[in-house]
Amino acid sequence: MTDPNCIFCKIARGEIPAKMLFQDADVMAFHDIRPQAPVHFLLVPKAHVATLYDAQPEHERALGKMLALAGRLAREAGASDGFRSIVNTGRVGHQEVYHVHMHVLGGAEPLGPMLQRRK
Ligand code: 5GP
Ligand code: ZN
Question: Which residues lie near ion ligand 2 (Cβ < 5 Å)?
Answer without folding.
Answer: 3, 6, 8-9, 48, 99
